[in-house]
């Protein structure tokens, strides 16, 4: 058969395959972010998801400082929670019980959602594909469990400590706890120090963070729950770190390292660096 006939048949078949391919629809994503500096990281992910045609719904507090109620990126669900009193005394209590107050506020927000039958029905009817949340606070994790949706974490820090220690084996003799000032090469006393820092994390989770959500787990989650166990069950961890720049440690296949994802304008950065060098040389 002549070559041009073969090419013609191949082209015809290719066009037919393309014509009968089902269209690709964007996903329907429910986002439960954390306010403040954590929102800076989350917003970058939302911008990329929106650019790819995904439909995004963001749950925000009525007194949110950074998360706008109206945005071209997403549709918002605003929760009216009694944060005024907590925020009024927040800075007075900061040094003593910052973590307890923060988790208590978000725990109240989750109660508002679970007790609102209309909101729960709306969330169910929206048929979200998954929940994207920052696990520095646990409400998004609990909401995903309650709605029986896949969970994606935008993570470096969890409710108490660094995320690696919850998702993968982390031998304390070789992996330093952040804030300890240690490296992966420790003598005996340094390993004791590392264990002490890790004990603080366990104490915070057991006696400060956990109790804030125990009542929610018992009341709203079937068979109860444990925050760390729910984090470990997450489908994907988008980890805001670069594995090659960290100390050697085990990891898991569902951990995706996205360190450097905020460096969007590399050309401009390179140009600025060149200008700085030129100025120094001059």
TrEMBL record:
Matching SUPFAM superfamilies: UDP-Glycosyltransferase/glycogen phosphorylase
Protein's name according to its UniProt entry: UDP glucuronosyltransferase 5 family, polypeptide D1
Family: Belongs to the UDP-glycosyltransferase family.
Cited PANTHER family: EG:EG0003.4 PROTEIN-RELATED (PTHR48043), UDP GLUCURONOSYLTRANSFERASE 5 FAMILY, POLYPEPTIDE F1-RELATED (PTHR48043:SF63)
GO molecular function, one term: UDP-glycosyltransferase activity
UniProt entry keywords in alphabetical sequence: Glycosyltransferase, Signal, Transferase
Keyword Signal annotated: yes
Residues spanning the signal sequence: 1-26
Originating organism: Seriola lalandi dorsalis
